[in-house]
Amino acid sequence: MTEQQEQALQLATDAGHILLENGAEIRRVESTMKHIASAYGIDDESFFVLSNGIIATGQHYARAEFIPIKGTQLARVVEVNQLSRDVNPESPMPLDVLAARLHAIRTRHGKPWWENVTGIAVGVAAFCIIFGGSLPDALATFVCGLMLGAFMTFVGPHLSRIFGNLLGGIAGGTLCIAAARLFPGVLHLPNMVIGTIIALVPGVPFTGGLRDLADEDYIAGATRLLDAFLAFLCIALGVMTALVVDGYAYGGLLELDSPTIDSVTSEWYIQLAAALLGTVGFSVLFGAPRRYYLSCGLTGMIGWGVFLLASTHLTVTVSAGAGALAVAATSILLAGLHRCPVTVFLVCGIIPLVPGGGIFWTAYHLVTNHLRLAATTGFTALKVAVAIAGGIIVATAVYNMLRRPTPRRAA
Questions:
Q1: Quick one: residue 153, left, alpha or beta (phi over 0 = left, psi -120 to 50 = alpha)?
Q2: Side-chain half-sphere of 38: how many Cα atoms within 13 Å?
């Protein structure tokens, strides 16, 4: 292996590093690395990609990297994808140009803090409406979202994922409880908390793990889904902690009724508008390119619209699966239209279907010692999550089957 080829192999690994740490699926990471390496005449390379690491080998070359997912920036996935397209095997770009572009992608700053905080606040307020909240509930959730967004933007990056989700759950729960205490009888705490904690939902590990399973990469898929499950657990524990501390401070836990459905915000057109705005807000949180904000919002709106339509005749579980199938299919179509990774639209568009209500009510019933209700609510949330997984896996598997080249018959 020449010195130039060794440098090309190292740059291919760097490209995979950027993709993996920003939430790209395993198949895309491997295919991008192989494409860049082969463009520079390296045909004996071997890449082994896990959910948190890359092993690259070649003739007289070996490199292994541990790559934890810290903060997702989907814009970097899009940029590396475009860079890979620009690497033409017939006339490869100079290696110093490739290195400079990769360095620029890796070091480019994310969205300004105010855009992140505003996106989170708009997103949680919209999802409060989606989950049955009233306009006053949404306004209060918007304020709570601003403060939670500031916490996630300035404090979150300095914490571990587990501790960050735990503190985030405590912060989100405490903010909503404080608002409900200030305006008793006006605000509905369950709707506010459910909307607020959606900002903490691990959408990237969840959808990435499902796509890895659809690609038959079971180790990476199971690892990412376990990461998502631990995040859900930490969020629930954080909300439980906030409820218990409030109960000790006021001499008893807040008595909560079943989720309320506001007669005004439950209108279908308001629900669709809320799904659009909420998904756009989360596309900001996940670092999607600004030019794709509207497409991300439309993806979430279509999925939620299918869910609402299906839920008039079918169970919640089946409706969630149908909505997830619609989100995945729409994401695939938009990815082809915009020539960018499916992950950009799928990660953002699936958020309206995530069972945030199940997380809250399971935590609440555990705190109030209603174990049977906690088990029932938790199992329902699990069924919805499985249905979402099924919808994404089916759509991804069909897409992979259709794009797979048909072998030619021997003459």
A1: alpha
A2: 11
User: Could you tell me which residues are beta bridge partners of residue 55?
Assistant: 48, 64
What are the residue ranges of helices labelled H in 188-265?
189-197, 203-214, 218-250
Q: What are phi and psi of 53, to 5 degrees?
A: -170, 160
In the predicted model, what is the mean pLDDT of the chain? 87
Q: Is the pLDDT at 263 greater than 90, yes or no?
A: no
Residue with tokens 């475009």: 82
For residue 403, the one-letter residue type is R
d(CA 350, CA 342): 12
Provide the pairing of β-strand 46-50 with 53-58: antiparallel
Rounded Cα–Cα distance for residues 8 and 74 (Å): 24
DSSP state of 79: H
Give percent of the chain above pLDDT 70: 96
Is the per-residue pLDDT at 259 higher than 90?
no
Q: Which residues contact 34 (CB under 8 A, 6 or more apart)?
A: 12, 45, 47
Q: Is the pTM of this model over 0.85?
A: yes
For residue 27, the tally of other CB atoms under 10 A from its CB is 18
Alpha-helical segments (H) within 2-134: 3-21, 26-39, 74-86, 95-107, 113-130
Asked whether 259 and 132 are in contact (CB, 8 A), the reply is yes
Mind giving me the DSSP string for 151-197?
A: HHHHTGGGS-HHHHHHHHHHHHHHHHHHHHHHSTTTS-HHHHHHHHH
- Please, what is the Cα angle at 286 between 213 and 300, to 5 degrees? 75
Token couple for 250: 């006021």
pLDDT by residue (tens digit) across 110-136?
889 999 999 999 999 999 999 899 999
d(CA 370, CA 374): 6
Domain boundaries defined on the chain = 3-107, 113-402
Tens digit of pLDDT for each residue in 143-182? 999 999 999 999 988 888 889 999 999 999 999 999 999 9
Query: Is the torsion defined by CA of 323, 225, 55, 164 positive or negative?
Result: positive
